[in-house]
Amino acid sequence: MWVLCRWGPVVLVGGSLRGMMRMVYAFYARRLRRQLDPAVVPRHVAMVMDGNRRWARRMGFGDPWIGHRYGAEHLDEVIGWCAERGIRHVTVFVASVDNVRKRDSGEVDNLMRMIEDVVAERLSRPVSVWRVHVAGRLDVLPDSTRHALKLAADATRDSATGFHLNVAIGYDGREEIVDAVRELLEAESRAGYGVADAARRLTADRIAAHLYTGDQPDPDLVIRTSGEHRTSGFLLWQAAHSELYFCDAFWPGFREIDFLRALRSYAARNRRFGA
């Protein structure tokens, strides 16, 4: 195979071609990193990890659910990129309420085992810099999955690194807002306020404080992989003024250069916050 480089045409075969492609990739990644201004890096990045099953089919795996395992293992790498760039808040959309309730029971069982064995176990390791928060309706999850995620959250609760990872599982954006309003009204009732008084005291900020991510900044950037151009109810309230970035790569094939391109696109935008 002929490849044209700055010194002229070069013949590459087999491993030589793969080596050249790795060199080109590394060069391009370094170039993207240099283009990024550390002062314009988002504080909070949210990601819809979409396309796991389609990636597995494209790669020729007989069982498309193998894609979820690869996707879960890839999460380690992606949040590592976030930490390297100084992004201290990350939210990942793992599974919606509909994913858990409406998909084939065998598929859901496989997904839950993958979450227990890969996501929860890896995030609770002492070497992890991330404090884990679980966002979603945990009552729709199997007991074993709920327990594994609780252990991960408890094991990282005292982390003082300042890095926070929200795992959105059994999640629905509308349900989150309902839960927040219900929790706020219950708090008002315990404080002795009636319905009329609670209604007068109701504000957007007070509702926001009771969201699953209530003590964290809203996401500056939402990334969705797999080429789908929709948010699927993800962080409906928090993402009202977020920048959106849609990437064609399936989640297990989401490369560092794809991530850096998303950050470059974010940095080039003029954020208006609804103005």
What can you tell me about this protein's structure?
- With 275 residues, this protein is an alpha/beta fold.
- It has one domain (13-268): Decaprenyl diphosphate synthase-like (Undecaprenyl pyrophosphate synthetase, 3-Layer(aba) Sandwich).
- It contains ten helices and eight strands.
- The protein has helices at 15-35, 52-58, 66-84, 97-102, 105-123, 143-155, 173-190, 195-201, 204-208, 256-268; strands at 2-5, 8-11, 44-48, 89-96, 130-135, 163-171, 221-224, 243-246.
- The protein has a six-stranded parallel sheet, with helices on both faces. A two-stranded antiparallel ribbon has the order 1-2.
- The longest helix has 21 residues, at 15-35.
- The radius of gyration is 21 Å and the shape is globular.
Q: Estimate percent helicity.
A: 40-55%
The top-level CATH class is Alpha Beta
**First CA to last CA: what distance?**
53 Å
Strand order of the largest sheet: 5-6-4-3-7-8
Number of domains: 1
Please report the total strand number as a whole number: 8
CATH homology superfamily name? Decaprenyl diphosphate synthase-like
Weakly predicted, low-confidence segments: 1-12
Number of helices: 10
Coarse morphology: globular
CATH-level-2 architecture: 3-Layer(aba) Sandwich
Q: Enter the CATH topology name.
A: Undecaprenyl pyrophosphate synthetase
Give the SSE order as H and E letters.
EEHEHHEHHEHEHHHEEH
Structural class: alpha/beta
Largest sheet: 6 strands, parallel
Estimate the mean pLDDT confidence. 90
